[in-house]
Structure formats: structure tokens, C-alpha cells
Write a structure and sequence with these properties.
Helices cover about 75% and strands about 0% of the residues. By secondary structure, the protein is mainly α. The chain has one domain: Hydantoin permease. Helix 1 crosses helix 15 and helix 5 crosses helix 7. The longest helix has about 40 residues. The structure holds tryptophan.
Length: about 450
């Protein structure tokens, strides 16, 4: 392992890093709006099943590969499986570039939300007019600037190493974010739209689930847990040998899922309670996080005036701890493989990413050709949506599928015993080992394959 690689400082370092990576815009921004588009209920069930059957075993598998090899994904697969398998690592790096490219654009919106909230907190809240959000995202120059700022922040933290910056910050900020979310859930439960929101989220009606929703639920399980591209391999490589991979993986999965559901409860309750919010999001559910929440905070919630700006700083941090994990995969490869200095690797990694961000930033209304660009059909127009769809629903599941095949069928099985199994006195292996082995060999790959095959051979390509 290269001397330059950063190590997490504390024993809980992994939990902080991994949940920081997992919890982000995927939970607060993306999950609520894709759940909305897929009509709730049944989509949520499919998502939860995917998290348990696919997410948990792959989370365990990635951490295991990282901790065993102590390397970035490309070199890790190379070491444990040989050069052919390292292609999975390369696919992961490419996927990371794509995701970071558009993620930085959305993350940039937290900056303007923070500024608006400061303004509202000082001068009083005026609900944005219908269409205001569309105008904002269509402002190309502003979008270019915001994504640049966000990538620069990410690069700044990465170039310094992560222990002193992000680890220390996430330790304080993530618990505060959690508390504010809990507070908002409790307050939202007092609103009249509560019952409607709950039945939207929790009463499944499978006839309401569009066929593409199943792929989208599986893809989102990968996205929200940061799986399928090696982020958890990278973070697992910093994990203390004494920690239980099984427990840590389960904890990250649970925290991430709770936060995603909480975000839906909050947002839908407001949408069903406050008619003006429904109007303002109607054209742009993509903007839910940025339109509905300020309304709740300023009009319904005690101390909302103080909490609103704080909340968007925290969302920004949640996004930052995710962009860091994405950039770190790219940077650690450049350092280990190309022997670059951390500074140079950061500059090249972030610079390349920004090229992708430029196309995404201008695809929200600013440049027609980019905004109407479409491969996956209606509802997914524009470079940003297209890349999101491509990365989450195709690249991550395919990467994940190969990870399950590698760990379940090709990797030296003694490694699994060493990392997640314990031997009983009679020489047999314990329950955790057997269960993991069954999931990673059969359940997870079959589930992913079934979804991929049904999409390829079904009519529905979106
Ligand atoms: N999981 C993060 C979120 O939900 C995004 C993210 C960070 C990610 N690292 C990743 C997604 C790696 C896929 C792969 O916001």
C-alpha cells in the first residue's frame, strides 16, 4: 500500500466514512422524487427488498475486498483475482467519474438554498413562484459556477487528506443532521397531510408500479448505499481488522434506509398538507428538496427560521461527504497506479470530472441540444438525467453483479472465512459466514440478473 494513502483516525472511522458516503443527496433529494414518480408503495417495497437481498451482501463483499487487499478497487481486484478482474475496478472508476460529474451540479444547489434561507430568515419568507425553480436550474452560468464551487470544495478536502477535515467534520455534522431530520419528522406528523403521506409511502399497489420502476429501485439501492463502483472497497481498506464487517455493513445499510424513508415522510406530508407547495413542485419534482422543505421550515415549524439555513449547510455536508468518497476512488487510483502526488492526482481527477459537470450543468434548460438529449425516453431527457439513469441503473448494477460473482465464485473462499466467518469449536463455520455465502453466491446475483434480463428482453427500456 502506498505511503500516501490516508487512514481513518478513530476506530469508528469506518462507520463515519461509510455512512457519510452513503447518506447524501441520494437519500434527501433523489429517493423522494423517484419514489414520487413511481407512485410510492410498491416501489418502496421493491427498494427495501433490493436493499436487503442485494445491498447488504454487496456492502459486506466490498468491505471485505477492501480490508483484505488494503488497496484501491483496481489494484484490489488485480491482487485477489488477477488482471482480468481488475476491469471491474476500471468500470468502477469510470462510473465514479460519471456520478460525480452530475452529483456536483445538484450538490451546488445546496449553496443557493443556503443563501436564500439566510435571506428569508433575515427579511421574511415569501414562497417562490411557480416556475422559479425551473428558471434557476436553467441559468447556465450560475449552474457552471455552483458545480465548480462544489467540486473545488471536494478537491480541497481530498488534497489535504481526509482525516483532519472530513472525518472531524462529519463526526459532528452528521449527528446534527440526524437530529434535525428527527425533529422535522415529528413536526411533520402534526400536519393534516400525514395520513395521505403514509398511505402513499406504505400501502403497496403493484398495479401502480411502472415496469421500469423495478430496475430503478434496484439501481437506487446501489446508488444510495454507494455500492457497485468500489467506494466501499476503498473505505473498507481503511478499516480496523478488529471490527466486524458484518455489523458495520448492517449499520450503514440501516442508517441510510431510515434516513431515506424519513425524507419521504417529511416531504410528502408537506406536499399533501400545503396546497401551494403542490403547485410549486408540480412541474419539477426533481426540486422537491429545494422547494418543499423551506416552505415547511418557514411556515409550519417552530424555530424553522433558525433551522432552515443550518439545515442546508448540513445537506451540503452530507453531499460533500459523498462527493469525497467518489473523488477518493479516482484519486487513490492515480496515486497508487500512476504514482502521482496527492495534489496532482486531485487536480487531474477533479478537472476531468468538471468536464462532465459542464455538460450536465448546461442540460437543465440552458442549452437546448443538451437539455433535450435523450436515450432513455420521456422523463429522462437531458445529459444530467441520462447519465444518472445510465450510471445508477446500468453501470452500478453491472459492477455489483461482477462483484458478487467474483466474491461468491472465484475469490479464494478462505478470505471470506478470515474476514467474516468464525470457526466453531467443532471446526464448522458459523451462521454469519453461511448466510453471507448463500446470499453472495445465489441470492444477490440471481436477483440482479433477473432484473437486468427482464429489462433487456422486456419492452420497457427506460
Ligand atoms: N450514496 C451517495 C448518496 O446517496 C452517493 C454516492 C457516494 C455514491 N459515493 C457513491 C453513489 C458511490 C454510487 C457510488 O447520495
Amino acid at each position: 500500500m502506498s505511503q500516501n494513502r490516508e487512514q481513518w483516525g478513530s476506530r469508528v472511522g469506518f462507520i463515519l466514512a461509510a455512512s457519510g458516503s452513503a447518506i447524501g443527496l441520494g437519500n434527501l433529494w433523489k429517493f423522494p422524487y423517484i419514489t414520487w414518480h413511481n407512485n410510492g408503495g410498491a416501489f418502496v417495497i421493491v427498494y427495501l427488498i433490493a436493499v436487503i437481498l442485494i445491498g447488504w451482501p454487496i456492502m459486506t463483499a466490498e468491505i471485505l475486498i477492501g480490508r483484505k487487499s488494503q488497496k484501491n478497487p483496481v489494484l484490489a481486484f488485480d491482487e485477489l483475482g488477477g488482471s482480468n478482474w481488475s476491469l471491474i475496478g476500471w468500470l468502477g472508476v469510470l462510473t465514479g467519474l460519471v456520478i460525480l460529474g452530475y452529483y456536483a451540479v445538484i450538490a451546488g444547489w445546496t449553496i443557493t438554498s443556503f443563501i436564500s434561507c439566510m435571506n428569508w430568515s433575515m427579511n421574511g419568507y415569501t414562497a417562490p413562484e411557480e416556475g422559479a425553480f425551473g428558471e434557476f436550474i436553467g441559468n447556465g452560468k450560475l449552474q457552471l459556477l455552483l458545480s465548480f464551487i462544489f467540486l473545488a470544495l471536494t478537491a480541497g478536502v481530498i488534497s489535504k487528506g481526509i482525516k483532519k477535515g472530513i472525518e472531524r467534520a462529519t463526526k459532528i455534522l452528521m449527528p446534527i443532521l440526524f437530529l434535525i431530520i428527527v425533529y422535522m419528522v415529528i413536526m411533520a406528523l402534526g400536519l393534516p397531510g400525514r395520513n395521505e403521506a403514509f398511505s402513499f409511502i406504505f400501502s403497496p399497489d403493484f398495479s401502480n408500479l411502472p415496469p421500469s420502476g423495478i430496475l430503478e429501485a434496484v439501481g437506487h439501492a446501489f446508488f444510495t448505499l454507494s455500492l457497485g463502483m468500489g467506494a466501499m472497497i476503498t473505505y473498507g481498506s481503511y478499516m480496523d481488522k478488529k471490527e466486524s464487517i458484518f455489523k458495520n455493513a448492517a449499520l450503514v445499510v440501516i442508517l441510510d434506509t431510515v434516513l431515506a424513508i424519513a425524507a419521504c415522510v417529511i416531504m410528502y406530508t408537506i406536499i399533501f398538507s400545503v396546497p401551494s407547495v403542490k403547485d410549486s413542485i408540480s412541474g419539477s419534482t426533481v426540486g422537491m428538496l429545494f422547494i418543499t422543505l423551506p416552505n415547511l421550515l418557514y411556515t409550519e415549524i417552530p424555530f424553522g427560521t433558525i433551522l432552515a439555513p443550518v439545515f442546508y449547510i448540513l445537506v451540503g455536508f452530507a453531499a460533500l461527504s459523498s462527493t469525497i468518497s467518489l473523488l477518493e476512488v479516482i484519486v487513490s487510483l492515480l496515486i497508487d497506479k500512476m504514482k502521482m502526488s496527492r495534489q496532482k492526482a486531485t487536480l487531474i481527477g477533479a478537472g476531468t470530472t468538471y468536464v462532465i459537470s459542464i455538460f450536465c450543468a448546461l442540460s437543465l434548460g440552458a442549452v437546448d441540444a443538451l437539455s433535450s438529449f435523450s436515450i432513455f425516453g420521456p422523463g429522462k431527457e437531458g445529459v444530467l438525467s441520462t447519465l444518472d439513469h445510465l450510471a445508477s441503473n446500468w453501470m452500478l448494477p453491472v459492477g455489483g453483479l461482477f462483484i458478487t460473482i467474483f466474491v461468491g465464485w472465484f475469490m479464494d473462499q478462505k478470505i471470506i472465512q478470515d474476514e467474516v466467518g468464525k470457526f466453531n469449536d467443532d471446526g464448522s463455520v458459523n451462521f454469519t459466514y453461511n448466510m453471507f455465502k448463500f446470499f453472495i453466491r445465489f441470492i444477490a446475483p440471481v436477483a440482479i440478473l433477473a432484473v437486468i434480463i427482464s429489462v433487456i428482453f422486456g419492452k420497457d427500456f427506460s
